[in-house]
Structures are given as C-alpha cells and as structure tokens.
Amino acid sequence: MTSAVSATSSPAPQSGGPRAPLLRVHGLKCSYGQAQVLHGIDIEVFAGEIVSIIGANGAGKSTTLMCVSRINRSSGSIEFNGASIASLPPEQVVRQGLVQVPEGRRIFPRLTVRENLEMGAFIRSDKDGIESDLQRIFEMFPILKDRALQQGGTLSGGEQQMLAIGRALMSRPKMLMMDEPSMGIAPILVAKIFDTVKNVLNAQGMTILLVEQNANAALRMSNRAYVLETGNVVLTGSGQDLLRDPRVREAYLG
Amino acid sequence: MQQTVAAAEFLAACALSRVDAVGGFARDGLLSSQEVFTQQLVTGLSNGMIIALIAIGYTMVYGIIELINFAHGDLCMLGAYFALTVVGALGVDQWAGTGGIMGLVLVLVGTAAFCGSLNWSINRLAYRPLRKASKLSLLVSAIGASFILVNLGLFWGGLPMDVFADGTSSAAPKAFPALVSAAPAAQIGDVIYSRTDLLVLCVTLPLMVALTYLVRFTKLGKAMRAVAQNPTGASLMGIDVERVIGASFFIGGSLGGFATVVYSLYNQTVSFQMGYRMGMDAFIAAVLGGIGNLPGAVLGGILIGVIRSMSDGYLEARWTNTVVFGILILILVFRPSGLLGAKLREKV
Questions:
Q1: Quick check: is B97 in a domain?
Q2: Got the DSSP string for B272-312?
Q3: CATH number of the CATH domain containing B120
Q4: Most buried among A50, B125, B148, B328, using CB within 10 Å?
Q5: Do A122 and B347 count as a contact with CB atoms less than 8 A apart?
Q6: pLDDT tens digits, A194-232
Q7: Residues 184-243 of A with CB under 8 A from B
Q8: Which ipTM value was assigned to this complex?
Q9: Which class in CATH covers the domain with range A23-108+174-253?
C-alpha cells in the first residue's frame, strides 16, 4: 500500500499558537420527543488523533454521532475543519470530508459488495481514482475482493463491518466516525478490525472518532477519550489515564 | 369521424376494453382454435406490456418510499388528455409518411415529459412534506392527489381539443385519433398482427431495457437501490435522498406517459375515468409480481394482460375481473409477497 487511502488532513500551518481542532462540538443537545438524550456535551478531535467516546448503553454515544452527521436534529455548535456544519444536510457533511461508519453497519443488503463500495464514492466523479481506491480497499480487506460480486446482505457481521469501513473510506474522508465497530462480531475479527484502524488508517494520518462499548479495547488504541453518562461528559483524558482511572475501571472495565 | 366517436363510446361502455370484439371471433368460430389462441395471446401480450410499463411506476415508488401511489393511474389519464391536446393543437393526425412517425415520437416524448414532471411535482407538493409522517397520512395524501387529478381530467375533457366535434360533454369519452394505420403489420393465417401491436413492442421493450440498464449500471440507478434499501445509510454516504426520490417519481411518471399514449392508440378512446382502470390493472400487476420488484412488475403486467385477454376470449368479458381478482387472491394467499417478491428479510 503506497499512499494513504484518504490521508488528506493537512493541519493549518503551525506557526505558533495552539492548533485548532478538526472537529469541535460545543453544547450539543438532542431530544427524542420529550426525552432529552444529550444535555450539552463538548468534544474536540484534533487532526491525526484517535478519540473514543465510551459509556454504557443509552448514554448517548450513537446519538452524538448521528447529530454530528446531521441525521438527528440538535442544538449547539458543530464545527468541522474550521467551518460550521450545524445547519448542513447530511449529504453535505459527507462532502466536507466527515463520514460515519454507522452502528449495525447499515450497508446496502441487496447491492453487491462492489456496488456498496461504489456508493461510498458517490460524491466523487474521478473514475480512475475511484477504481484505484477500490483496489486499495481490497488490499486492506482481501475477503471483500473474494466476495466482490456477492450481495452485501450475505456477508457475515465481521465482513459487513469491513465493508462499511471500506465504503466510508471510498469518499476519501478527512475524518472517520465509527459507531460500535465491535458490536456483534467474533473477537478475532474485532482484533483484526481494530488493528487495521490503528495501524493502517491512523498510521497513515486518518483522524478517527470512535464510539465503543468495549472500553478496554477502545481506550488502548485511543490518544484521548470521553466518558459519557446519561447524556453528559463525566470524564475526559488520555486513553492511558482513563485505563488506570479507578472510576473507569469500576464502571466499564470491571 | 362520427363513427369513430360512436365506436369509442361503445368501447368505453364495455369498460374501455377493446378485446371484447376479438372475443366474439372465438365464439363465432371464424378462426381455428389455434388461431384464436394466438390472436388472444398477441392481444394479451400487447395489453400486458402496456400494463407492465404503468406497473413499473407503482413498484418504483413503493420500492423507494413504501407508498402505494394511488394517483399514478390518474396521472396517466391526464397524460392521455395532454397527448390528445398536442395532437389536436399541432394536427399531428394529419401528418403523413415520415412526418407521421415524427409526430408520433413527438407525442410520446412530450407526454412522457409531461407525466414525469407532473409526478415529480406531486411528490414535491403532496408527499415530500409528509416524509416523516405515518404511512397512512401519505396514503391519504395519495388518494387526495388522485381525486384532484380525476377532476382536472374532467375539466380538461370540457376544453376544445380540435380533434372532435363540438358539443361533447366534458365527461364523455373522447376518440383518440388513429395515428397508426389500421392496416395490419403482418398476417399469418388469419391471425392479425396490427401496427399498434408492433408499436407497443417498439415502445415498451426499449424502455424496459433502458430502465434495466439505468437501475443496474448507472450511478443514479445504484443510488436509487441504495435509498430503497437503506435511506439513512444512503444519506451517510453523501447521497441526496430527496433528489433520488424525485428522480424516481420523474422516471416512473414518464414511463406512465409513454404507456398512456400507446394505451390510448390501442383503445382509441380517452376518458377522465380511464385512470381507474389503467391504475387498477397495473397495481394488481405490481402486487402479483411482488411490489417493489421491477422484473416482478413486468412479469405481473404481462400475466394480467394475457389472463384478461384469454378470459375475454374464452369466457366472457364480464367474467374477466372476477378471474383476475380470483387469481390475485390465490397468489396472495399462497405467496403473500408476490411471484418475485423477497421471501425473507435480509439479515442486517
């Protein structure tokens, strides 16, 4: 693999002063009907980082990503790459270079694996570039190449997760948001997927915001992390610090 | 002219069914049983291909937003009035030779554009604001749109269209001028292959091939399937879901536009109530084939056309609806998702 699949994130010239975050979420609130799910959370992700959001079921982790992707309505500010995306439609967020690998994969079950990947490149029109990126995805996940002409719905959970990641990469994003990539997948595949995320994607410069229930694995690979409880950020720190934090150990690593 | 109008009214009285006339041959015994069968088959296939083209419009919309678009048949009806107006205004029925063929193409394409734009607009005004509402609200909105179109048709029928004598009421069926010569295209034994049959084939088949290509291989087609299977996932891939839905309405509507011109030429009459009959046949065809499934809509359309024609020929026309609905009920009892419908939900 020569160049990064999509490492186009080029931080602003660092001539003094603190770097601006690639993604800055401030005071994010979201409700489902009467129930408020997010009570004003702040999250920052800098270019080149892996940042994870951990927390129990129903803490609002997936909701956070759905708000940032603009699928869910929310209030508060969302800035990506220096510009507000808080009022863009979801398809425009993708065009800014911020792409989500959704929970449960949400692949297209009756499109072939290849067609699924092509849909990932929907916003692009450079045919040659798309084809070469397709080949890179196939190198990264060779099983997808074997199954290229199979319908997405016939893949196993782990293969579908690889497809969902590959599909997201096909848009050449600046940043990837991954929602529970380990959910419902055999442990050996989880290890393989996390390894690819850390040692291939992130090593090539991809910025990643990861939502996980598997706190142990997530914290180990993250630069920083946020702990979410019932719609509030209750703890934040480096992955290593949180791994050692007694509150985190008791609540999430027990 | 007068005769045509009289004939048209007679035909309209027989529930707009041309094949009743053919049914007579079977009972008169003028043709051999083999020939009767072939003739009925040809008629059935022609009608079936037209029904299939309309059924595609139902199944596309259902596939993408799970709405039975009750206005679709009436959209086709308005298309027929549009075609009639164009024919009258330009005098297309007087154009001869190559001009006649060009005129026919003009009427077909113009009506397709009209129906496509109208369907797109109906979606924009009546369905899109209800995207997050319950499916029932959407259905009621579709029924409302259907009523509006029927009344527009009734109004349109009262306007002078330059192709028939004055004095007809707005509700009366209008004769559709024969833009295709009544001379047979071919005759084998006593079986007549009319030029209209040929026209049906020349219009419907290329459109179905083109649609298959569009849906299977183009970016828009793949996006349409992606939106149908998972709208949120499609949105997260940067697909403008509303635009894709709008395109589906346009394509489905324009296929209906092509179909309605051919239907009008075949039946030689246009009425504000024809949308009900066209829509019902096509809707049954879509359900029979498995609603949401494009090849299913074509298969269902052809089956309905042939079943109707056989029933008209071998039983009596008045039994045809009973036969068609009987078969529909049987198939839905034993295969609730239709002939080609998905049997199982995919694992996700």
A1: yes
A2: TTHHHHHHHHHHHHHHHH-TT-HHHHHHHHHHHHHHHHHHH
A3: 1.10.3470
A4: A50
A5: no
A6: 999 998 899 999 999 999 988 888 999 999 999 999 999
A7: none
A8: 0.89
A9: alpha beta
